[in-house]
Write a structure and sequence with these properties.
Structural class: alpha+beta
Subcellular location: Cytoplasm, Cytosol; Cytoplasmic vesicle, COPII-coated vesicle membrane; Endoplasmic reticulum membrane
Largest sheet: 8 strands, mixed
Keywords: Cytoplasmic vesicle, Protein transport, Transport
Pfam family, one: zf-Sec23_Sec24
InterPro entries: ADF-H/Gelsolin-like_dom_sf, Beta-sandwich_Sec23_24, Gelsolin-like_dom, Gelsolin-like_dom_sf, Sec23/24_helical_dom, Sec23/24_helical_dom_sf, Sec23/24_trunk_dom, SEC23_SEC24_subfamily
Organism: Characodon lateralis
Oligomer: single chain
C-alpha cells in the first residue's frame, strides 16, 4: 500500500538534495530544516496544499511527510531520454549438452504460458537468439509467414545480420513469437554440436540491446568453450574437502566483468540461468550478472528426467521470474546524516560514484547491504538518518522515484547500543564481509575473522557493560543467538572447509549471501522448524478464499523432535519434512498418500494433492511459505533412519548427539580466545 505522489514540485533540500520526509523539522509553515545536513529550506507554495485532505496550510500533513516510504511520479527533470519500453532478449544455449539436459522444452512452455503476463505495455519488445558453436538470430518481423533463422558463424567478429527485425513489438509479432517457441524444442533435437560460444552470444546480445537497454536472460549448461570468454576447467575434485585453502574463488578472465560494465552503461541487465551437470566456472560467469545488476539462478546436476526436484524448482522459479515486477534504467543513491559516510556496498550493481549505484534492472527479489562509517562525532545529534532513493522506469514506461527513509536514535551509553542491536542484520553483513575477504585473501582468513568478531564482541561486552562476574560466554539478550549464528555461518557451503563442496556450488552460495533478502538468508543460516502432524486452523490466516494454518515456530534443537511427530524444517532453499518412526498413521496416509510408515518411498520429493482437510492444511501452509520468497524451495521427505538423520542434523547445530555437538565446543573455543 505505497503512497504514490503526483506533484509538479518534488520538495528536496537545496544543499544535500534529500527528499522531504517524516523526520524533517518544520520551523514554521514556511520553513523546514533538513534532517541530514540541517540546512533550513523554504516550503514551496504548492506544498501548502494537501491533496489527501484537500485542505490548505498544513504542509506537515502531506503524505510524503507522513510516510517513511513513498513513491513519486517523476517529472521530465529526472529523464536523460524518454523512458524506455520493456525490452526482453532471451539467449538460449542449444548445444548437444543443452539438448540432453532438456531445459529448452520447459522454458518454451513457461514463456508461452506467461507471454501475456510479461511486465510491460503496448511498446514491449522481445527477441531471441540461440547459440552452440555459432550464433543464430530470429527474424520475427510482422508480416512474415513464419520465423526466419539467420546464422552468424564468424564468432570472432559477431555482427547483427538485421537491425530492425530481430527485436520486435510483442503485440504485433505475437503469433510469430508463439510459433518460434512451439518449434524451438525440436529444432535442435538432433544436434551433435558440443561447443558453446557463450561470449560471442553475449557480445551479440549487447549489440542488439544497446539502442534501448532492457533485460537479457541467458540459459547456459556448460563451460563456454569457443570464442571470446572461453574458459577451461579450474576445479580439482580432489581438493573439494581440503582445509588448505580453496583456490579459484575469483574469475579466470575479466571478459565477463568488462562486458557487464559495457551493458550497465547501456542500461542492459543480464540474468544468468546456469543448468549444469559439470563444473562451469561460475566464479567467472557470475560477473556478467554481478556488475550489470542482474540475477543468478543455479541448478546443479540439472536433468529433466533424472532430477525431477531441480526441474520443478526451475519451472517455479521461471514462472515467477517472467512475471515479477521489473524496473529499468535505474540509479540508487543512499544519503546519510552529516558525520556518517558510506564505506562499502554489497549486492549486484556498478558503483558509479561514492554513493550512487547504477542498476540497469531492478526487481523485488534483490537485496543490498551497506556498511557505514562514523567520520565525525555525533555528540550534538540525537538522531541519525539514512535515505535511499531509487530512480527507475516502470515496465509501463513511467519514471518513478521510490524513497525509503530510516531514522535511528544516537545514544551515549554502550548498553543501549547492545540492547538495540539487530543480530540478524549483523550476521548477514558479517557474512558479506567474510565472502569479500575469502576472495581478496583466503577462506581460512575469512573464517578466522568471523570467529574473531564473536571474540571481540563478547570481550567488549564483558569489559564495558556486563558487571556480572559470570564465567563462560556472557552476551546481551538481543545478541544471545550471535555465537550460534556465526557457527552456523561457518557450516554454510560458502564458507565451510573439511566438507566436500563443489566449487560452483560454493560460488553460488557466496552470490546468494551477497544478493538475497535477509529473511531468506537467515533461513539458510538458522532454519525454521515446525511440527505439522498436529496442525490446526487455530490462529490461521484468511487470505482470499484460503485458510493458511500458522503452526508454532519451534526452537531449532533436536530436543524438540519427538518419536511420534512430523516436522518441517525450512532451510530457505530446501524444505525437509521429517517423518518419525511412530508418526501418526493418519498423517502418513492423508498427507503423503502412503498406507503406513514402511511404504514411504526413500526419495520422495513432493506432497500429493489429496482431498482431505489435513492434506489441504499442510499444502496451504507450504504454498504460503513458497509464495513469500524470491526463489522456490524443493521439498524432501526424510524418514527416521541413520542416513536421513545425518542430513537433518547437520542443520540442527545445537543437537547434543555426536553428529553436531560442536556448539559447546565453539563456545569453549571463544572462551580460550578471550583468555589469550
Amino acid at each position: 500500500q505505497l503512497p504514490v505522489i503526483t506533484s509538479n514540485t518534488i520538495v528536496r533540500c537545496r544543499s544535500c538534495r534529500t527528499y522531504i520526509n517524516p523526520f524533517v523539522t518544520f520551523l514554521d509553515q514556511r520553513r523546514w530544516k533538513c534532517n541530514l545536513c540541517y540546512r533550513v529550506n523554504d516550503v514551496p507554495d504548492e506544498f501548502m496544499y494537501n491533496p489527501v485532505t484537500r485542505s490548505y496550510g498544513e504542509p506537515h500533513k502531506r503524505p510524503e511527510v507522513q510516510n517513511s516510504t513513498v513513491e513519486f511520479i517523476a517529472s521530465s527533470d529526472y529523464m536523460l531520454r524518454p523512458p524506455q519500453p520493456a525490452v526482453y532478449l532471451f539467449a538460449l544455449e542449444v548445444s548437444h549438452n543443452a539438448v540432453e539436459a532438456g531445459y529448452l522444452k520447459y522454458f518454451c512452455e513457461s514463456l508461452l504460458e506467461n507471454l501475456d503476463k510479461l511486465p510491460g505495455d503496448a511498446r514491449t519488445r522481445v527477441g531471441f537468439l540461440t547459440f552452440d558453436s555459432t550464433v543464430h538470430f530470429y527474424n520475427l518481423q510482422e508480416g512474415l509467414s513464419q520465423p526466419r533463422m539467420l546464422v552468424v558463424s564468424d564468432i570472432d567478429d559477431v555482427f547483427i545480420p538485421s537491425h530492425d527485425s530481430l527485436m520486435v513489438n510483442l503485440k504485433e509479432s505475437k503469433e510469430l513469437v508463439k510459433e518460434l517457441l512451439t518449434s524451438l524444442p525440436t529444432m535442435f533435437s538432433q544436434s551433435r554440436e558440443t561447443h558453446s560460444a557463450l561470449g560471442p552470444a553475449l557480445q551479440a546480445a549487447f549489440k542488439l540491446m544497446s539502442p534501448t537497454g532492457g533485460r537479457v536472460t541467458v540459459f547456459q549448461t556448460q563451460l563456454p568453450t569457443l570464442g571470446a570468454g572461453k574458459l577451461q576447467s579450474r576445479e580439482d575434485p580432489n581438493q573439494r574437502s581440503s582445509n588448505k585453502g580453496v583456490q579459484h574463488l575469483g574469475p579466470a578472465t575479466d571478459f565477463y566483468k568488462k562486458l557487464a560494465l559495457d551493458c550497465s552503461g547501456q542500461q542492459i541487465g543480464v540474468d544468468l540461468f546456469l543448468l549444469s551437470s559439470q563444473y562451469a566456472d561460475l566464479a567467472s560467469l557470475a560477473c556478467i550478472s554481478k556488475y550489470s545488476a542482474g540475477s543468478l539462478f543455479y541448478y546443479p546436476s540439472f536433468h529433466y528426467i533424472h532430477n525431477p526436484a531441480q526441474l520443478e524448482k526451475f519451472q517455479r522459479d521461471l514462472d515467477r521470474y517472467l512475471t515479477r515486477k521489473i524496473g529499468f534504467e535505474a540509479v540508487m543513491r543512499i544519503r546519510c546524516t552529516k558525520g556518517l559516510s558510506i564505506h562499502t556496498f554489497h549486492g549486484n550493481f556498478f558503483v558509479r560514484s561514492t554513493d550512487l549505484l547504477s542498476l540497469a534492472n531492478v526487481n523485488p527479489d534483490s537485496a543490498f547491504a551497506v556498511q557505514m562509517s562514523i567520520e565525525d562525532s555525533l555528540a550534538d545529534s540525537s538522531l541519525a538518518c539514512f535515505q535511499a532513493a531509487l530512480l527507475y522506469t516502470s515496465s509501463k514506461g513511467k519514471r518513478r522515484i521510490r524513497v525509503h527513509t530510516l531514522c535511528l536514535p544516537v545514544v551515549s551509553q554502550l548498553s543501549d547500543v547492545y540492547a538495540g542491536a539487530d543480530v540478524q542484520a549483523i550476521t548477514c553483513l558479517l557474512a558479506n564481509m567474510a565472502i569479500d575477504r575469502s576472495i581478496s585473501s583466503t577462506l581460512s582468513d575469512a573464517r578466522d575473522a568471523l570467529v574473531n568478531a564473536v571474540v571481540d564482541f563478547v570481550s567488549a561486552y564483558k569489559s564495558s557493560v556486563s558487571n556480572l562476574q559470570q564465567s563462560g560466554v556472557v552476551v546481551p539478550a538481543a545478541m544471545r543467538l550471535f555465537p550460534l549464528y556465526i557457527l552456523a555461518l561457518l557450516k554454510q557451503k560458502a564458507l565451510r572447509t573439511d566438507t566436500s563442496t563443489r566449487l560452483d556450488e560454493r560460488i553460488c552460495a557466496m552470490c546468494e549471501f551477497k544478493t538475497q533478502p535477509l529473511p531468506q538468508l537467515m533461513r539458510m543460516v538458522h532454519p525454521d522448524l515446525y511440527r505439522l502432524d498436529n496442525i490446526t486452523d487455530q490462529g490461521a490466516l484468511h487470505l482470499n478464499d484460503t485458510v493458511v494454518p500458522q503452526p508454532h515456530l519451534l526452537h531449532l534443537s533436536a530436543e524438540r523432535l519427538s518419536r511420534d511427530g512430523a516436522f518441517l524444517m525450512d532451510c530457505g532453499n530446501v524444505f525437509y519434512l521429517w517423518i518419525s518412526k511412530c508418526c501418526n498413521e493418519m498423517f502418513v496416509r492423508d498427507v503423503l498418500g502412503c498406507p503406513n510408515y514402511a511404504s514411504i518411498p526413500p526419495n520422495m520429493n513432493h506432497i500429493p494433492e489429496l482431498q482431505n482437510p489435513l492434506s489441504e492444511r499442510v499444502r496451504a501452509f507450504l504454498d504460503w511459505l513458497q509464495d513469500n520468497r524470491a526463489f522456490s524451495s524443493s521439498i524432501h521427505i526424510v524418514k527416521d533412519d541413520a542416513s536421513a538423520k545425518a542430513t537433518l542434523f547437520q542443520h540442527l547445530v545445537e543437537d547434543r548427539s555426536d553428529v553436531a555437538s560442536s556448539y559447546q565446543e565453539f563456545l569453549q573455543h571463544i572462551q580460550q580466545q578471550m583468555s589469550k
